[in-house]
Amino acid sequence: MKLRFPHTYVIIFSLIILSAVLTWLFPGGDYVEHVKIVDGKEVKELVFQPQDSQPQSWQVFGAMFKGFTRQSGIIVFILMIGGAFWIMNSTKALDVGIMSFIRFTRGLEHWRLLKAVGVDNVIIVLIMLMFSLFGAIFGMSEETIAFVIILVPLAISMGYDSIVGLSMCYLGAHIGFAGAMLNPFTIGIAQGIAELPLFSGLEYRFFSWVVINIVGIGFVLWYAHRIRKNPRRSPMYEIDNYWREKAAEGDEKIEYHTPLSAWIAFGLTLASLAVFSIIYPMSEIKVGNAEPALIPAIPVATALFALSGILALRKTVHYFILNLLLFTIVFLIIGVMGYGWYIMEIAALFFAMGIASGIAVGYGGNRQVKLFLEGAKDIVSAALVVGLAGGIIVILEDGKVIDTILYRMASGLHQVGQIQAVSTMYVIQTVINLIIPSGSAKAALTMPIMAPFSDLINLSRQATVMAFQFGDGFTNMITPTSGVLIGALGIARIPYEKWVKWVWPLIVVLFILGLLLLIPTVTMKLNGF
After folding, report:
1. Nearest to 479 by CA among 496, 454, 457, 456
2. Rounded-to-integer distance, Cα 506 and Cα 212, Å
């Protein structure tokens, strides 16, 4: 009898049960903030205090409910994105865009250099580098979910599979996240707690980011080449029939036209943007925690939208909808870097894009609602699994054992050498990341302990921050408690077990690479260390 790998839901629920078992095995404890006076100044520190544990039993059956409450933002984000893109997909604009893009790239093959390198390889590298920079500079993570639904069909149309499509955005962003240079949510918080100059040690971090990207992107290119030669080697070959069938539906004869409704949608969108341009004439665009640059981002983007919108409408409504998508991404970047947008604002932005797309092709209100509900229904399984995964953390927190696990790990660092200490810190951060995927939360919990401890063993605090950075980054791509990973996999229709089986060799290589990159932080005199 052939053994079958368990379903994603079975795996996650098993982890919830395991978490409940740990609440019976570990004593309870909490880190409590204490204030002490040092040289006449108040210094805050986290002190571990044992307390009664709260063993979890029947609570495992309520973990999904609490997980939904905990992850409600990401769940609603997924449903809104799914509904909005379903409206856009029904207009056939994405099909037109993908076909046009493929024709354009094929046309580049007459360039001898590009043909030798492979145009598709260049496309994969450029897209992954773009997302990697976003991850390294402003910590892009949740935002990648919105791009999965674009890049997976693109990868399928290029002759690859859904894993390549997901890798271009999700893997690219999280490779950058791991090699973060200016990420305020991880490096910024960790260095602030460690009392280091913000974003100091940038030169070595940039070197590490380059090395990590070479390995990560190289792995994806190697895999993509194998799948291009023999698509049946893909573990997703049969499951990807869903995407191939959708692509086949897009091959139906498309009528290129520009109805009056498209001009109405353009006018309404332009008028709205003009109002925002008046309200927000200047935007403080900030990269990391650097000094913000004051620029007229919204008025300039609005003017470009007006020009490109007219040019697109003169061809076909499909190009206008693609133009809407392009400027949705432009305003997403402006919103994130200039106004601190998060998933609520981004979901609202894509929701508006979906409605504008529907208006452009003449859909009435009832038709748009029907399509939105179909899109939400199609993606609801991804939302369900995000809620279930959130239950793992709920059980550990309610059982009062997360801080105990952290304390036990940190206590094992006494009486070891510098290289062993930084390596052990890296391993500890990696293990903790499987339980607490939030980089900012992990920095707030671990750095008050790790930073002062590094002083006791004469270890650079900057090296400690690097150990946190790598430990926080690599396992984001496999941790089942990450709502972003589970949501992205759900949208791409990639089962968790297939993703883990595919990505684990890369994670092992990156983990070892992280260890090697930490050694110079101890043995060499690096700027900022």
Report:
1. 496
2. 11
Which bin fits 286, alpha (ψ -120 to 50), beta or left (φ > 0)?
beta
Report which secondary-structure segment, H or E, holds 516.
Answer: helix 496-518
Are 434 and 474 within 8 A, CB to CB? Answer: no
CA distance 389 to 387: 5
| Sequential DSSP letters for 5-16 | PPPHHHHHHHHH
> What confidence category does residue 1 fall into, taking pLDDT thresholds of 50, 70 and 90?
very low
Residue 292 in tokens: 């913000």
Report yes or no on 91 lying in a domain: yes
Tracing tokens 């573990």 back to the chain, one arrives at 235
Q: Please report, to the nearest 10 degrees, the dihedral formed by the alpha carbons of residues 479, 485, 490, 494 taken in order.
A: -70
Q: E strands of 286-403, at which residues?
A: 293-295
Identify the sign of the CA torsion 303, 309, 310, 312. positive
Read off the tokens for 179: 């090699």
In 3D space, the residue among 107, 16, 115, 104 whose CA is nearest the CA of residue 59 turns out to be 16
| Pair of tokens at residue 258 | 């520009």
Residue 508 forms part of a structural domain: yes
Q: In this structure, which amino acid lies at residue 330? A: V
Q: Which amino acid is at 246?
A: K
Dihedral-angle region of residue 340 (phi above 0 means left; psi in -120 to 50 means alpha; beta otherwise): left
Cα distance between residue 210 and residue 218, in whole Å: 12
Q: Within a domain: residue 90?
A: yes
**472 in Cβ contact with 439 (< 8 Å):** yes
440-495 confidence digits (pLDDT tens)? 767 766 777 777 777 767 788 899 999 999 988 898 899 887 888 988 998 899 99
Positions of E strands within 348-474: none
Output the DSSP codes for 389-425: HHHHHHHHHHTT-HHHHHHHHHHTTTT--HHHHHHHH
Least confident among 32-46, 88-102, 166-180, 271-285? 32-46
Long-range contact set of residues 204-208: C-beta below 8 Å, sequence gap at least 24: 204/520, 204/521, 204/526, 204/527, 204/528, 204/529, 205/179, 205/180, 205/181, 205/466, 205/469, 206/181, 208/179, 208/466, 208/517
Tell me if 425 is assigned to some domain: yes
Euclidean distance between the first and the last CA atom of the chain, given in angstroms as a whole number: 57
Cβ-in-10-Å burial (0-12, 13-18, 19+) of 206 comes to middle
Q: Nearest 5°: CA angle at 494, between 489 and 497?
A: 95
Number of structural domains the chain divides into: 1
- Determine how many CB atoms are found less than 10 A away from the CB of residue 499: 24
Host domain of residue 52: 1-256+378-529
Beta-bridged to residue 439, according to DSSP, are: none
Answer yes or no: are the C-beta atoms of 517 and 473 closer than 8 Å.
no
User: Global pTM?
Assistant: 0.72
Reduced to 3 states (helix: H, G, I; strand: E, B; else coil), residue 388 is helix
Q: Residue 30: which H helix or E strand, with range?
A: strand 28-38
**Amino acid sitting at position 528:** G
pLDDT > 50? residue 426:
yes
